[in-house]
Amino acid sequence: MAPDTYLTQFVFLGLTDNWVQEILFFMAFSAMYVLTLWGNILIMVTIVFTPCLSTPMYFFLSNLSFIDICHSSVTVPKMLEGLLFDRKTISCIAQLFFLHLFACAEILLLTIMAYDRYVAICAPLHYPNVNMRVCVQLVFVLWLVGTVHSLVQTFLTIRLPYCGPNVIDSYFCNVPPVIKLACTDTCLTGIPIVSNRGTISLSCFLALVASYTIILFSLRKQSAEGRRKALSTCLAHFMVVSLFFGPFSTDKLVSVFYTVVTPLLNPFIDTLRNEEIKSAMKHLRQRRVFKPYPIYIELNLVTLKVILSFISTSILYFL
Protein backbone atom coordinates (compact mmCIF):
# COMPACT_ATOMS: atom_id res chain seq x y z
CA MET A 1 0.00 0.00 0.00
CA ALA A 2 1.36 3.43 -0.92
CA PRO A 3 2.53 5.55 1.99
CA ASP A 4 0.19 8.39 1.03
CA THR A 5 -2.84 6.08 1.16
CA TYR A 6 -4.84 6.22 4.37
CA LEU A 7 -7.23 3.64 5.66
CA THR A 8 -10.92 4.37 6.12
CA GLN A 9 -12.00 0.86 7.08
CA PHE A 10 -10.54 -1.81 9.32
CA VAL A 11 -10.86 -5.59 9.38
CA PHE A 12 -11.43 -7.26 12.74
CA LEU A 13 -10.53 -10.90 13.39
CA GLY A 14 -13.48 -11.54 15.72
CA LEU A 15 -13.60 -14.04 18.56
CA THR A 16 -12.78 -17.20 16.62
CA ASP A 17 -12.38 -18.56 13.09
CA ASN A 18 -13.94 -21.94 13.93
CA TRP A 19 -17.40 -22.05 12.30
CA VAL A 20 -18.86 -24.34 14.98
CA GLN A 21 -17.79 -21.97 17.72
CA GLU A 22 -19.07 -19.02 15.67
CA ILE A 23 -22.56 -20.57 15.52
CA LEU A 24 -22.53 -21.35 19.24
CA PHE A 25 -21.30 -17.86 20.10
CA PHE A 26 -23.93 -16.33 17.81
CA MET A 27 -26.76 -18.23 19.52
CA ALA A 28 -25.52 -17.43 23.03
CA PHE A 29 -24.77 -13.74 22.44
CA SER A 30 -28.00 -13.22 20.49
CA ALA A 31 -29.99 -14.55 23.45
CA MET A 32 -28.00 -12.38 25.84
CA TYR A 33 -28.51 -9.27 23.73
CA VAL A 34 -32.26 -9.81 23.47
CA LEU A 35 -32.49 -10.34 27.24
CA THR A 36 -30.37 -7.23 27.80
CA LEU A 37 -32.72 -5.12 25.69
CA TRP A 38 -35.85 -6.62 27.22
CA GLY A 39 -34.65 -6.46 30.82
CA ASN A 40 -33.46 -2.85 30.66
CA ILE A 41 -36.55 -1.69 28.78
CA LEU A 42 -38.68 -3.44 31.39
CA ILE A 43 -36.97 -1.52 34.20
CA MET A 44 -37.34 1.79 32.35
CA VAL A 45 -41.04 1.22 31.65
CA THR A 46 -41.67 0.17 35.26
CA ILE A 47 -40.04 3.32 36.65
CA VAL A 48 -41.76 5.65 34.17
CA PHE A 49 -45.25 4.20 34.80
CA THR A 50 -44.93 3.97 38.60
CA PRO A 51 -45.36 7.35 40.36
CA CYS A 52 -44.02 6.07 43.70
CA LEU A 53 -40.69 5.35 41.99
CA SER A 54 -40.23 9.02 41.05
CA THR A 55 -37.20 9.39 43.31
CA PRO A 56 -33.54 10.19 42.53
CA MET A 57 -32.51 6.57 43.06
CA TYR A 58 -34.90 5.18 40.45
CA PHE A 59 -34.37 8.12 38.11
CA PHE A 60 -30.67 7.26 38.03
CA LEU A 61 -31.50 3.56 37.74
CA SER A 62 -33.62 4.17 34.64
CA ASN A 63 -30.76 6.17 33.13
CA LEU A 64 -28.39 3.28 33.88
CA SER A 65 -30.72 0.92 32.00
CA PHE A 66 -30.78 3.31 29.04
CA ILE A 67 -26.98 3.52 29.00
CA ASP A 68 -26.68 -0.28 29.21
CA ILE A 69 -28.91 -0.63 26.14
CA CYS A 70 -26.80 1.89 24.22
CA HIS A 71 -23.48 0.47 25.45
CA SER A 72 -24.25 -3.09 24.38
CA SER A 73 -25.78 -1.93 21.07
CA VAL A 74 -22.52 -0.26 20.05
CA THR A 75 -20.57 -3.54 19.89
CA VAL A 76 -22.89 -6.57 20.03
CA PRO A 77 -24.78 -6.21 16.69
CA LYS A 78 -21.51 -5.78 14.79
CA MET A 79 -20.02 -8.74 16.64
CA LEU A 80 -23.03 -10.90 15.73
CA GLU A 81 -22.68 -9.84 12.10
CA GLY A 82 -19.02 -10.85 12.18
CA LEU A 83 -19.92 -14.28 13.56
CA LEU A 84 -22.27 -14.92 10.61
CA PHE A 85 -20.36 -13.43 7.68
CA ASP A 86 -16.79 -13.72 6.46
CA ARG A 87 -16.53 -10.02 5.66
CA LYS A 88 -15.58 -8.39 8.97
CA THR A 89 -14.98 -4.75 8.06
CA ILE A 90 -15.87 -1.73 10.13
CA SER A 91 -15.55 2.04 10.04
CA CYS A 92 -14.08 2.76 13.44
CA ILE A 93 -14.85 6.44 13.95
CA ALA A 94 -18.52 6.08 14.93
CA GLN A 95 -17.94 3.02 17.10
CA LEU A 96 -14.99 4.62 18.87
CA PHE A 97 -17.00 7.75 19.65
CA PHE A 98 -20.12 6.02 20.97
CA LEU A 99 -18.17 3.32 22.82
CA HIS A 100 -16.28 5.91 24.87
CA LEU A 101 -19.36 8.11 25.24
CA PHE A 102 -21.49 5.40 26.83
CA ALA A 103 -18.62 3.89 28.84
CA CYS A 104 -17.74 7.29 30.33
CA ALA A 105 -21.41 8.09 30.94
CA GLU A 106 -21.84 4.81 32.83
CA ILE A 107 -18.77 5.38 35.01
CA LEU A 108 -19.98 8.88 35.92
CA LEU A 109 -23.53 7.68 36.54
CA LEU A 110 -22.35 4.91 38.86
CA THR A 111 -20.40 7.54 40.79
CA ILE A 112 -23.46 9.78 41.06
CA MET A 113 -25.53 6.82 42.20
CA ALA A 114 -22.98 6.07 44.93
CA TYR A 115 -23.24 9.67 46.15
CA ASP A 116 -27.04 9.36 46.03
CA ARG A 117 -26.83 6.31 48.31
CA TYR A 118 -24.48 8.24 50.60
CA VAL A 119 -27.00 11.08 50.99
CA ALA A 120 -29.93 8.66 51.46
CA ILE A 121 -28.17 6.66 54.19
CA CYS A 122 -25.99 9.25 55.92
CA ALA A 123 -28.39 12.22 55.68
CA PRO A 124 -31.87 10.63 55.52
CA LEU A 125 -33.65 13.77 56.78
CA HIS A 126 -32.33 15.82 53.87
CA TYR A 127 -32.85 13.15 51.20
CA PRO A 128 -36.62 13.73 50.69
CA ASN A 129 -35.80 17.37 49.90
CA VAL A 130 -33.47 16.47 47.03
CA ASN A 131 -34.71 18.35 43.99
CA MET A 132 -35.27 16.23 40.88
CA ARG A 133 -34.17 19.23 38.86
CA VAL A 134 -30.69 18.79 40.36
CA CYS A 135 -30.73 15.13 39.30
CA VAL A 136 -31.61 16.10 35.74
CA GLN A 137 -28.79 18.64 35.75
CA LEU A 138 -26.34 15.99 36.99
CA VAL A 139 -27.36 13.65 34.17
CA PHE A 140 -26.96 16.49 31.67
CA VAL A 141 -23.45 17.17 33.01
CA LEU A 142 -22.43 13.51 32.80
CA TRP A 143 -23.52 13.37 29.15
CA LEU A 144 -21.63 16.59 28.48
CA VAL A 145 -18.45 15.27 30.12
CA GLY A 146 -18.87 11.94 28.32
CA THR A 147 -19.20 13.72 24.97
CA VAL A 148 -16.08 15.83 25.53
CA HIS A 149 -14.12 12.76 26.69
CA SER A 150 -15.24 10.75 23.68
CA LEU A 151 -14.41 13.55 21.24
CA VAL A 152 -10.91 13.80 22.69
CA GLN A 153 -10.33 10.05 22.47
CA THR A 154 -11.73 9.80 18.94
CA PHE A 155 -9.92 12.87 17.60
CA LEU A 156 -6.54 11.83 19.00
CA THR A 157 -6.99 8.37 17.46
CA ILE A 158 -8.21 9.29 13.97
CA ARG A 159 -5.69 12.09 13.47
CA LEU A 160 -2.93 9.47 13.23
CA PRO A 161 -1.96 8.22 9.75
CA TYR A 162 -2.94 4.60 9.02
CA CYS A 163 -1.12 3.22 6.00
CA GLY A 164 -1.57 -0.50 6.68
CA PRO A 165 -1.98 -3.20 7.84
CA ASN A 166 -5.62 -2.71 8.76
CA VAL A 167 -6.39 -5.88 10.76
CA ILE A 168 -7.57 -5.48 14.37
CA ASP A 169 -7.23 -8.48 16.66
CA SER A 170 -10.58 -7.83 18.33
CA TYR A 171 -14.31 -7.80 17.59
CA PHE A 172 -14.79 -4.03 18.02
CA CYS A 173 -12.82 -0.81 17.63
CA ASN A 174 -11.08 0.42 20.75
CA VAL A 175 -8.23 2.90 21.07
CA PRO A 176 -5.33 0.57 22.09
CA PRO A 177 -5.62 -1.95 19.22
CA VAL A 178 -6.33 0.78 16.66
CA ILE A 179 -3.39 3.07 17.42
CA LYS A 180 -1.07 0.06 17.20
CA LEU A 181 -1.78 0.12 13.45
CA ALA A 182 -0.67 3.73 12.99
CA CYS A 183 2.33 4.17 10.72
CA THR A 184 3.96 6.73 13.00
CA ASP A 185 5.28 7.05 16.54
CA THR A 186 2.26 7.09 18.89
CA CYS A 187 4.04 7.94 22.15
CA LEU A 188 3.04 11.61 22.15
CA THR A 189 -0.54 10.74 21.23
CA GLY A 190 -0.74 7.89 23.71
CA ILE A 191 0.10 10.08 26.70
CA PRO A 192 -2.95 12.39 26.47
CA ILE A 193 -5.19 9.42 25.58
CA VAL A 194 -4.14 7.49 28.67
CA SER A 195 -4.20 10.63 30.83
CA ASN A 196 -7.71 11.51 29.73
CA ARG A 197 -9.06 8.03 30.38
CA GLY A 198 -7.08 7.53 33.57
CA THR A 199 -8.15 10.82 35.14
CA ILE A 200 -11.85 10.08 34.75
CA SER A 201 -11.59 6.42 35.81
CA LEU A 202 -9.35 7.09 38.81
CA SER A 203 -11.43 10.07 40.01
CA CYS A 204 -14.66 8.09 39.81
CA PHE A 205 -13.10 5.06 41.47
CA LEU A 206 -11.79 7.12 44.40
CA ALA A 207 -15.17 8.83 44.77
CA LEU A 208 -16.90 5.43 44.82
CA VAL A 209 -14.50 4.05 47.43
CA ALA A 210 -14.93 7.17 49.60
CA SER A 211 -18.74 7.00 49.38
CA TYR A 212 -18.95 3.34 50.36
CA THR A 213 -16.37 3.73 53.13
CA ILE A 214 -18.39 6.54 54.72
CA ILE A 215 -21.61 4.55 54.29
CA LEU A 216 -20.15 1.47 56.00
CA PHE A 217 -18.95 3.53 58.97
CA SER A 218 -22.31 5.31 59.28
CA LEU A 219 -24.23 2.00 59.36
CA ARG A 220 -22.84 1.25 62.82
CA LYS A 221 -25.14 3.89 64.28
CA GLN A 222 -28.30 2.55 62.68
CA SER A 223 -30.73 -0.13 63.77
CA ALA A 224 -30.47 -3.72 62.58
CA GLU A 225 -33.40 -3.22 60.20
CA GLY A 226 -31.88 0.00 58.86
CA ARG A 227 -28.54 -1.71 58.30
CA ARG A 228 -30.24 -4.58 56.47
CA LYS A 229 -32.12 -2.29 54.06
CA ALA A 230 -29.08 -0.09 53.47
CA LEU A 231 -26.77 -3.03 52.86
CA SER A 232 -29.28 -4.66 50.51
CA THR A 233 -29.50 -1.50 48.39
CA CYS A 234 -25.77 -0.80 48.46
CA LEU A 235 -24.84 -4.42 47.74
CA ALA A 236 -26.82 -4.40 44.49
CA HIS A 237 -25.16 -1.16 43.41
CA PHE A 238 -21.73 -2.37 44.51
CA MET A 239 -22.14 -5.54 42.43
CA VAL A 240 -22.95 -3.44 39.35
CA VAL A 241 -19.92 -1.22 40.03
CA SER A 242 -17.66 -4.26 40.49
CA LEU A 243 -18.86 -5.80 37.23
CA PHE A 244 -18.11 -2.60 35.33
CA PHE A 245 -14.75 -1.68 36.88
CA GLY A 246 -13.40 -5.18 37.46
CA PRO A 247 -12.91 -6.75 34.03
CA PHE A 248 -11.24 -3.96 32.00
CA SER A 249 -8.71 -5.62 29.73
CA THR A 250 -7.58 -5.73 26.12
CA ASP A 251 -8.12 -9.50 26.05
CA LYS A 252 -11.00 -10.40 23.76
CA LEU A 253 -12.67 -12.91 26.06
CA VAL A 254 -12.46 -10.53 29.02
CA SER A 255 -13.80 -7.70 26.85
CA VAL A 256 -16.87 -9.83 26.14
CA PHE A 257 -17.66 -9.64 29.84
CA TYR A 258 -18.12 -5.88 30.07
CA THR A 259 -19.58 -5.39 26.57
CA VAL A 260 -22.05 -8.31 26.58
CA VAL A 261 -22.42 -9.90 30.03
CA THR A 262 -22.42 -6.84 32.31
CA PRO A 263 -25.34 -5.06 30.56
CA LEU A 264 -27.33 -8.29 30.99
CA LEU A 265 -26.46 -8.76 34.66
CA ASN A 266 -27.28 -5.16 35.65
CA PRO A 267 -31.06 -5.45 35.18
CA PHE A 268 -30.92 -9.02 36.47
CA ILE A 269 -29.37 -7.82 39.75
CA ASP A 270 -31.58 -4.75 40.07
CA THR A 271 -34.80 -6.63 39.29
CA LEU A 272 -34.32 -9.62 41.55
CA ARG A 273 -32.82 -7.78 44.54
CA ASN A 274 -35.14 -4.75 44.63
CA GLU A 275 -38.48 -5.45 46.27
CA GLU A 276 -39.97 -2.09 45.24
CA ILE A 277 -39.31 -2.72 41.56
CA LYS A 278 -40.66 -6.27 41.76
CA SER A 279 -43.80 -4.99 43.51
CA ALA A 280 -44.20 -2.24 40.90
CA MET A 281 -43.83 -4.76 38.07
CA LYS A 282 -46.51 -6.98 39.57
CA HIS A 283 -48.81 -3.98 39.95
CA LEU A 284 -48.25 -2.94 36.34
CA ARG A 285 -48.89 -6.49 35.21
CA GLN A 286 -52.22 -6.45 37.02
CA ARG A 287 -53.02 -3.22 35.19
CA ARG A 288 -51.99 -5.04 31.98
CA VAL A 289 -49.29 -2.50 31.18
CA PHE A 290 -47.20 -5.51 30.31
CA LYS A 291 -47.90 -9.23 30.75
CA PRO A 292 -44.68 -11.26 30.46
CA TYR A 293 -43.00 -10.20 33.73
CA PRO A 294 -43.05 -13.68 35.37
CA ILE A 295 -41.88 -15.19 32.09
CA TYR A 296 -39.01 -12.71 31.97
CA ILE A 297 -37.82 -13.60 35.47
CA GLU A 298 -38.04 -17.33 34.86
CA LEU A 299 -36.38 -17.00 31.45
CA ASN A 300 -33.65 -14.85 32.94
CA LEU A 301 -32.89 -17.41 35.65
CA VAL A 302 -32.75 -20.37 33.30
CA THR A 303 -31.01 -18.60 30.43
CA LEU A 304 -28.48 -16.93 32.70
CA LYS A 305 -27.40 -20.28 34.12
CA VAL A 306 -27.07 -21.77 30.63
CA ILE A 307 -25.18 -18.76 29.26
CA LEU A 308 -22.76 -18.51 32.19
CA SER A 309 -22.09 -22.25 31.95
CA PHE A 310 -21.44 -21.88 28.22
CA ILE A 311 -19.10 -18.93 28.73
CA SER A 312 -17.09 -20.68 31.44
CA THR A 313 -16.79 -23.81 29.27
CA SER A 314 -15.69 -21.72 26.27
CA ILE A 315 -13.09 -19.85 28.30
CA LEU A 316 -11.65 -23.12 29.59
CA TYR A 317 -11.57 -24.43 26.02
CA PHE A 318 -9.62 -21.41 24.77
CA LEU A 319 -7.22 -21.56 27.70
From TrEMBL:
Chain ranges of the G-protein coupled receptors family 1 profile domain: 39-319
MF terms in GO: copper ion binding; G protein-coupled receptor activity; odorant binding; olfactory receptor activity
Keywords from the named record: Cell membrane, G-protein coupled receptor, Membrane, Olfaction, Receptor, Sensory transduction, Transducer, Transmembrane, Transmembrane helix
Coiled-coil positions: none
Primary localization class, coarse: membrane
InterPro entries documented for this protein: GPCR_Rhodpsn, GPCR_Rhodpsn_7TM, Olfact_rcpt, Olfactory_Receptors
Highest taxon in the source lineage: Eukaryota
Entry membrane topology: Multi-pass membrane protein
Pfam family, one: 7tm_4
Compartment(s) where it occurs, according to its Swiss-Prot or TrEMBL record: Cell membrane; Membrane
Residue intervals passing through the bilayer: 23-50, 57-76, 96-115, 135-156, 200-219, 293-318
One GO cellular component term: plasma membrane
Record family assignment: Belongs to the G-protein coupled receptor 1 family.
Function: Putative odorant or sperm cell receptor.
Protein name as it appears in the record: Olfactory receptor
Organism expressing this protein natively: Phocoena sinus (Vaquita)
